Structures are given as C-alpha cells and as structure tokens.
Amino acid sequence: MDAILNIDAIQQIIPHRYPFLLVDKVVEKNEDGTFQVAVKNTTFNEPYFQGHFPGFPIMPGVLQIEALAQAGGIMTLTMEGGSDVPAGGFDTFLMGVEKAKFRKPVSPGDQLFLETKLLSLRRNTAKIQGVVRVDGKVVTEAEIMFMLVPKDKR
Q1: What's 4's DSSP letter?
Q2: Alpha-carbon distance 104 to 102, whole Å?
Q3: Is 52 among the residues known to form the active site?
Q4: Nearest-CA neighbor of 10 among 25, 20, 31, 22?
Q5: Which of 9, 14, 31, 131 could crosslink 115 through cysteines, CB 3.0-4.6 Å?
Q6: Please, what sign has the CA dihedral across residues 114, 67, 128, 91?
Q7: Among residues 11, 21, 52, 86, which one is catalytic?
Q8: What is the pLDDT of residues 114-148, one digit of tens each?
Q9: Where are the beta strands (DSSP E) in the chain?
Q10: 55 contacts: CB under 8 Å, gap ≥ 6
Q11: C-alpha radius of gyration, the chain, whole number
Q12: What is the DSSP string of 8-40?
C-alpha cells in the first residue's frame, strides 16, 4: 500500500523517535480526517521481543495501545476543517484507556493495521476508537483519550 504519510512526515507531526516510534506510515484517511489507517511493521529485532517472552515472543499489549495512541494523535493533528481542530503546534498526551481488549497475540513479522476513528473532540481533549488488525483479524481494541498540548507549554 502506498503511504499517504511516510515516516518522514510522521516525524514532523509527532515527537516520538526510535525505539518508541510505533507507526511506520499512514495508508488511508477519510475526507474529513476523522478515520485513518496506519501501519506498524514488526520484526524480530524489536527490543521487546527479546524479553517478552523468550521462546514465545509477543508484542506487549501496552505497546499496541501506544501504537494506537500515536496513530490517533497523527489523525487528530492532521484533521482538516472543524472549529475544534487546533491549528499545528500541538502534541498529544495520553489521558486514559477504556474498554481495552487483547484478542490474539502479535508476533514478530506481523503487520499491524492501526485503525483510528474520532469519537469526540472538545477544546483540548480527544477520544478515539482504536482497532488493531493483523491479517484482517482484530487483535486489539480500545477507546483512548488524550489531551492536545501546545508545544510551547509542554
């Protein structure tokens, strides 16, 4: 799939860097930017696979939630239109996670499709629905809340 946003563009939007940048590209976005699909490719070389768990490496659920949160931040910070959408110069800080479910393990070599949908955006807080799919199957889902913080106030 071709990237709508590649890794260089993503690094212009969110401050995360290796080894904690968990979104490789954005491949789909609806017209108003309230739905997005991003991709995270996993490899055996990722540091967490070495210790989680030896002999049965799986991606920690908290990192899957973090990947969804990063994808949601990218989605929110690149939305077009709408009076509640802040214009540039913001970061997103995680506020809460609800209804998290981990349905299947994520293994080295899996390609995660991170689907994010805006549920609400009010002033400086956003809530998204996030779903992680591998091979078309839901492996993780959660509702994630975050705060939009001006970069000059962090």
Answers
A1: S
A2: 6
A3: yes
A4: 25
A5: 131
A6: negative
A7: 52
A8: 999 999 999 889 999 999 999 999 999 999 999 99
A9: 25-29, 35-41, 90-102, 111-122, 125-134, 137-150
A10: none
A11: 15
A12: HHHHHH----TTS----EEEEE-TTSSEEEEEE
